[in-house]
Amino acid sequence: MTARILQQLNGQMLLKIINTLKDPIWINEKNGNVLWVNQAAYDYFSIGELVGKNVFEMEKQGLFSPSIARLVIEQKQFVSTTQITQNNDHVLVSGDYIQDENGEIQYIVTHGRQLSPAINQTKELEKIESILQLYKQQIRQLILQKNQQDEDFYVGKSKAAHYISEWAQKIADIDTTILLTGETGVGKTAFAYRIHQLSSRNNKPFIHLDCSAIPESLIESELFGYKKGAFTGANANGKIGLIATADQGTLLLDEIGEIPLHLQSKLLQFLQNKTYRMIGDNKVQQADVRIIAATNVNLMERVKEGTFRKDLFYRLNVVPMNIAPLRERKEDIIPLLNFYLSKFNKKYGRQHTLSKNLMDALYNYRWEGNIRELENLMERLVITSDGPKIDINNLPSDFPLQQSQQILLQNLEEVSLPIYLDQIEKSILIKTYNETNSTWKTAKQLGVSQSYIIRRLKKYNLKISDAKELVEE
Questions:
Q1: pTM
Q2: Which of 69, 197, 294, 363 is the most exposed place for a label (fewest CB within 10 A)?
């Protein structure tokens, strides 16, 4: 039926049908001369008469590149590629040939479809996507700044504080595992939450699990959950684990070094392929969770002891970050004191200020408990102090700095003022040097010259021991 209809159509009618197509159609001889083009080709190129021109010459003149007819002749096969016109338009062009009775190329037929609109739309979409990403980042920053009005562990002027802040922004959207290390109280939890706020997961759950606070027998069920009737004493309806709760969000595994050895392989499996099994269930579950681990112990030592898997350590340690203790970034102490004073004044409706003596004393305090100790002390002082100005005598009686002040006052009753002052200076020298292990750093921290420190070491008969500590000769 189809063949009979085509036989009834004459050549002119076929050309009229092809002319209705909106894509350019070319028919060329093998020497490149144009025999016929449809109306769409004229409309698209707008360069006058095309029939009789040579496509090879047109290619040399830069009207388009490459010539599909040339490629078909060279390769003697069907060709499809992108052609660029003199107006920098992109056209997807396909070409094939018709053979003569000897099997040689006689005619080349090419068909084009304009790509520029699609390319331009793609570019516009890319621009819009880029703008949206920028807006999303700015919104995250605004949310973070708002939250920081209530809580911020990284107020400070030290290089370490700036590095921590910049590092959080840099790794927030790198969706990989992070290992935070540092002493107790340096703010590992706050840093993990900061990363979560800056990431694309900020509108999803942030779950905090303290591995050291949960009995070993319960931590697996807390983490992975369990099915109904999984064990005696289990909830009759089963339990959803924290991994499922944190789906699409962030899970902080605090004190990761305390996780039981038998559970570490299951955690490693989840880190590798995001799959796990609930207790009492054979079904494999999936969850898209970003893991941030934190510890105040040396995990490599745990690996050597055999209590922590080496493969789990390396899987957690993809992006390591150590948070320095407060005593190593003393420039942050005063800003933090002022921050928490303001925070707790606002919380308890007070208007306290800190005396210079107290500020100086707290600046030189060692802060073994780091930021957490500082925060707790400031809250206590704001609550318990009566007068508008908080001074050294307002410190709790069990606070180490207060005890040292009382000892010095007792010594003052027994010795003369010059001897008393020498004792204080000697004590400060020993303490500061043993913190810095350098006479130059000691001088810088105390605001004096290095030669002054050397003279004082000789005056008080102090020497550097084999253990690199300052001791009396």
A1: 0.57
A2: 363
